[in-house]
C-alpha cells in the first residue's frame, strides 16, 4: 500500500479535494478524513471519494485533551504515517502533537512568519504588502510556528478585492500542499540534524 495519511478538515475542504485529485491512490492513500464539525463540506468530498470519515466535536468531550486523545487514537488505529491539517481550524494540544513527531503538516494562507493565525489574508491586505503567498509547514505546539517545508510567493495586484486574493491563494495552496505531501511520502523531506528548523528537500 502507498503511504497512508489522514486529513483533518473543518470547512470547505478544497485542499482535501486537491489531495484527492492529485495524489490520492498514487503516492499516498488517504485512509480517513476527520473533522471537528459534522457540517464540514470536506466530509462530503471524502465520502464522495469513498474515504472513511469521522467527526470529533469538542462538545462531545469534557475537555480538549480528551477530544484530542480520542482523535489521536483514531488516527493511529488507521495506520496513518502523516496527519495533514487542511483547513482544520483548531489548535491541537501538545499531547496530540507529541504523538506524531514531525508527522503533522499544515497549509497556511500566508508567507510565514508574517501573519500567523486565522486572518492571514485580511491582515496582509490591511498591512498593504506587495507580496503574498502560501506556506506548508510542520506543526509544532505554537500557532503556525513549525519548520517551513515549502513556500510560494506571488505579487499582489493593486485591486485589493479579498475574494480575488483568496482565489489566488487557494490556487497556490492546491498545488503546494499536494506537492509537500508527495515529497514526504516519497521520503524526500528530512530535518537537518544540526538545526530542527531547517527542512531539507531532496528532489
Ligand atoms: C485554507 O486557506 C488554508 O490555508 C487555511 O484554511 C483554508 C482551508 O480551505 N488553513 P479549504 O477548507 O481547504 O477549502
In short:
The protein is an alpha/beta fold and 203 residues long.
Describe this structure in words.
The strands form two sheets. This protein has a seven-stranded mixed β-sheet. The chain contains six helices and nine strands, in the order E-H-E-H-E-H-E-H-E-H-E-E-H-E-E. Helix 1 packs across helix 6 (162-185). Strand 1, helix 1 and strand 2 form a beta-alpha-beta unit. It has helices at 14-22, 41-48, 64-77, 94-99, 120-127, 162-185; strands spanning 3-9, 28-35, 53-55, 82-85, 104-108, 131-138, 148-155, 189-191, 199-201. The protein is 34% helix and 24% strand. By secondary structure, the protein is an alpha/beta fold. The chain has a single domain, classed as Rossmann fold (3-Layer(aba) Sandwich), CATH 3.40.50. It is globular. The structure holds 5-O-phosphono-beta-D-ribofuranosylamine. The site of 5-O-phosphono-beta-D-ribofuranosylamine has 12 residues, from helix 1 and strand 5.
